[in-house]
Amino acid sequence: MSVVTRAAIEAALSQYTDPHLNQNPVSAGCLREVEIQGAAVKVRLVLGYAAGLFKNGWAQMLQMALENLEGVERAEVQVDCEIESHKAQDQVPALTNVKNVIAVASGKGGVGKSTTAANLALALAREGARVGILDADIYGPSQGIMFGIPEGTRPQVKDQKWFVPIKAHGVEVMSMAFLTDDNTPVVWRGPMVSGALIQLITQTAWDNLDYLVVDMPPGTGDIQLTLAQKVPVSGAVIVTTPQDLALLDAKKGVEMFRKVNIPVLGVVENMAVHICSNCGHAEHLFGEGGGQKLASQFGVDLLASLPLSMAIRLQSDGGKPTTIADPESQIAMIYQETARTVGARIAQAGAVGMPSLSVSDD
Predict the structure, then answer these.
(1) How far is CA 109 from CA 117, 175, 217, 219, in A?
(2) Rounded distance, CA 101 to CA 213, Å?
(3) For 344-358, how does the pLDDT look when each residue is reduced to its tens digit (9 = 90+)?
């Protein structure tokens, strides 16, 4: 019988690519422990992103690969998720009880940014992460409606200093809409809005979050710049439609984050195609391939391309976005894949310029 070696185990694992990291688990640094006892092998991998719905299937696939090795009779593969803190701007202090901040932004309104932010937060929570969402769109807050939070709900105040976020669908939610009258518009100038937002972010008692998703206002003005410079953002997701005008504004959003050294994690393209509910005819109402062109131009991922779907709109308006309203649907699966990829990109981007850790398996 052949003697099983660590080199053989690493070679076998290296034949499989993690679809979210685009690397094999060995070169990605996920392999933490290898135990060989005769013909029995035990391996432990650690993923740096939330992957609760993925890790068991991944473990089974790698287990089969190891059991096909000559000399291995039994293999056990354990996959854990350990999410570390990452922030792009070294000079910006970290938020209390928040590991990673994900900005969801768009160059213009009406492209489905808030819907994307809500489903991204819910998808991350379904993957096992502790998640919060901050509705930073002061002039047009919508996360309260999307999360089914009744009108007039107010956050509790802790120690006369901290707002306690409202929990809905397993996600902590905070919005300026919880502090103002829903029927009264916020008539503030940019500096006032920026100050209020920073206060809202830093004075909310987040409960040890792995990810805080920030639904940013559309555009690239004073509010966005203040958030990008004063909040320790780990990375940004740009939302667009295939329409040329939306893409033009989305490019400005990408450039804004690059100027303040915040990694752009990828692009989400909404309303990519409309499929007739009667005849099944597919039509690209807003153009075709725009999101891919934008992603290719800036060298980032096209995270998702989502259809123009009445279900997405109805579920969001009803307070149960697609990810939880129809979790087994194709659209929900796209959001789950997007959430895992976003988490993986944060882990990869955060590794650049950070102190390296040496792990020895003696």
Answers:
(1) 13, 18, 8, 8
(2) 6
(3) 999 988 643 333 333
Report the C-alpha gap between 72 and 95 in whole angstroms.
47
- The pLDDT-based confidence of 246 (bands split at 50, 70, 90) is low
Each residue of 254-304: pLDDT tens digit?
Answer: 888 888 888 999 989 887 665 656 665 555 545 556 567 777 777 788 898
Task: Compute the distance between CA of residue 223 and CA of residue 299 in angstroms, rounded to an integer.
Answer: 26
Q: Say how many C-beta atoms besides its own lie within 10 A of residue 150's C-beta.
A: 9
